[in-house]
Structures are given as structure tokens and as C-alpha cells.
Design goal:
This protein is of the alpha/beta class. The protein is about 35% helix and about 20% strand. The longest helix has 21 residues.
Length: about 325
């Protein structure tokens, strides 16, 4: 077939095809099925609503105000990492400190994080190296938190707690007792009846470390961040304390590293971490009527001594 003949044949074939399409009217139409997805406009509206809610939450938690219900001096037992289910945890000391809070007027509680071991993933094998099961761990955690219902100023989620993800059981346990629970950090503004305000900046851990100063992390936060009255963290299972004075305001800032009720730790032995724990907790005694900034907050490592001092202050404040 010549080129001219092939061209005429192709033109004829294309013409016949066009005529066939024009003549047929029985085409299949796509059925109308609603989409299961949001439209772009609807997604944008959802995203804006989510952002507005997140913004409201973040602004509110920059400083969470807590009203102190009584006048005069108070104390706070800052519980170091409890690890309630670990065989190396000093339960005698933990029970003692719980009872002190329960029985002492003006004494409140705080938890710096790592309530349980909460082994997950490949670390789940470590349940085979402790006598307490995962289920028993949550029974102990619930008991611990509920024992101090009404006395919690704050509870922080530690790295072990964070391993639970969004389904952290501590969110549900603390909600049952009306306690403030924040993941990783919380800034608490204590508002006293006499108008005095004390700010506690609590994190499970602050960035930074020093072989020369166990309290380097909270000190760094106080000097480079917000000048809060108490800057405290845990996580490293060692004790440290460094008071600082703000030269501009005269405020005395108490930078604290609190240890853990988990006194014996196989991991610490493997890594060669030496015992630097003064106490599994630290107690801050706050006297809102103090005139001298040096007398506003006193730090104790022995909870029994701290309670004796608090009772003396409260008796002086209200002799009747």
C-alpha cells in the first residue's frame, strides 16, 4: 500500500470511529457515591480548631496557678523517682513519707516522675528480672497516688511513664483523685492567702550535666530561663542543691536535683554510676510571711526533720 493509500485509509477509519461515537447514546455514567474524606476546606477548618485548642492549652500551662487553702508556712515533699514496682525500691521510706504527708497539717506532695518501671518493647524482658508483674505495678501506682488524694500539688511524667504513649494510665489514675499531672514538665504558681506567690518549675530532667555539679541542669535553667523560686528535677537518681541569687530582683532561686526511692539499680552498677543520693526525696518549707528572701524557702533532705521544722513554724505563726 502506497503512502497516499494508507493516509486515505486512516482518514476513513477515523471518520467511521467518530461516526460510531456520535451515533451511540448508551454510555455508562459514573454512579454518584459520596466520598469518605473531608474536603480541603473542611480539613482546614478542623486544623484551625485543633490549633486554637492547642494554643489555649499551651498558654494556660505556661504557669498553672494553684491556690493554697491555708495560711502560714507549708511544706512540700518532692518525691524522687518512685519506681514503685522495682525490687530495689525502698518501700519503707516511701510509706514513711506518705504517712508524714497524711498526718502533717500544711504538708503537701509532689512527684517528679517515673512512678513505675513500665518496661516496654525490648525492655519488656526486664519484667523477668523483677518479682513484680506489670499488672501489679499499676496496682501499686494507683495505691500510691490515691493515698495522697487531695494533697498533690503536681505530678510529672518521667521517661518511663512516657513509654506508655498517649494511653498513659497515669492520666486516668490522677484524674480520679483530681491531681495535676503533666507530661515532662510543669510550672506551678502557688498563691498564698496573704498574696505571696511562689513559682515552682518542675521537670523530670533539665538539659545539661556536669561531673562537678549534680544540680547543673536546674541551675542552667534558672540562669538562662525564667527566674523561678524553685527549679527541680529528678531522673538521674542523685541529689544536688545549688541556691542562686538573682542580682536584679534579689530573689533566691533554689535549684534542686532529687534522687529516687529506687536505691539499688543493676543498670547503675553496670555503668559504674556511684551512689550520690542524699535522700529519695527533698522537702521545701515555704514561709510566705518571711521578710528576708533567704528565709522564704528552706530545703531539707530528711523528711522527719523537715516536719519538725514545719510544725515549729506553724506553731509560731498560730500559737493558739
Amino acid at each position: 500500500m502506497s503512502v497516499a493509500s494508507r493516509k486515505r485509509w486512516n482518514e476513513k477509519r477515523n471518520l467511521l470511529r467518530r461516526m460510531a461515537r456520535e451515533e451511540r447514546t448508551d454510555f455508562i455514567e459514573k454512579p454518584s457515591v459520596p466520598t469518605g474524606e473531608y474536603s480541603a476546606e473542611e480539613i482546614i477548618d478542623l486544623m484551625k480548631n485543633r490549633y486554637s485548642r492547642q494554643l489555649e492549652y499551651e498558654n494556660a500551662r505556661k504557669l498553672i496557678n494553684v491556690t493554697i487553702p491555708i495560711g502560714g508556712p507549708i511544706g512540700i515533699v518532692h518525691f524522687g523517682d518512685p519506681h514503685v514496682d522495682d525490687d530495689g525500691t525502698d518501700w519503707a521510706a516511701l510509706e514513711r513519707d506518705i504517712r508524714l504527708v497524711q498526718s502533717t497539717e500544711g504538708l503537701y506532695a509532689a512527684n517528679i516522675g517515673d512512678t513505675t518501671n513500665n518496661w516496654v518493647g525490648r525492655l519488656g524482658r526486664l519484667y523477668g528480672q523483677q518479682s513484680t508483674t506489670a499488672k501489679q505495678a499499676w496496682i501499686l501506682a494507683e495505691w500510691f497516688i490515691k493515698q495522697l488524694s487531695g494533697y498533690w500539688l503536681y505530678l510529672i511524667g518521667g521517661n518511663h511513664d512516657a513509654w506508655s504513649g498517649d494511653g498513659d494510665p497515669l492520666n486516668f489514675i490522677t484524674s480520679q483523685v483530681g491531681a495535676l499531672y503533666e507530661a515532662s514538665e510543669a510550672r506551678i504558681g502557688l498563691q498564698f492567702p496573704n498574696g505571696k506567690n511562689i513559682v515552682i518549675n518542675a521537670r523530670h530532667d533539665f538539659a545539661g550535666g556536669s561531673m562537678w555539679n549534680p544540680a547543673h541542669g536546674p541551675m542552667k535553667a534558672a540562669q538562662l530561663g525564667v527566674r523561678d523560686d524553685v527549679v527541680i528535677c529528678g531522673h538521674k537518681h542523685k541529689s544536688g542543691y545549688s541556691p542562686l541569687k538573682d542580682p536584679d530582683s534579689g530573689k533566691v532561686m533554689h535549684c534542686l536535683q532529687v534522687a529516687s526511692y529506687k536505691r539499688y539499680d543493676r543498670y547503675a552498677k553496670e555503668k559504674g554510676f556511684r551512689d550520690q543520693s542524699l535522700s529519695p526525696c527533698v522537702i521545701t518549707i515555704i514561709n510566705p510571711d518571711a521578710v528576708d528572701p533567704v528565709d522564704l524557702i528552706q530545703v531539707f533532705w530528711n523528711p522527719v526533720t523537715a516536719v519538725q521544722y514545719l510544725k515549729m513554724l506553724r506553731k509560731e505563726w498560730n500559737p493558739s
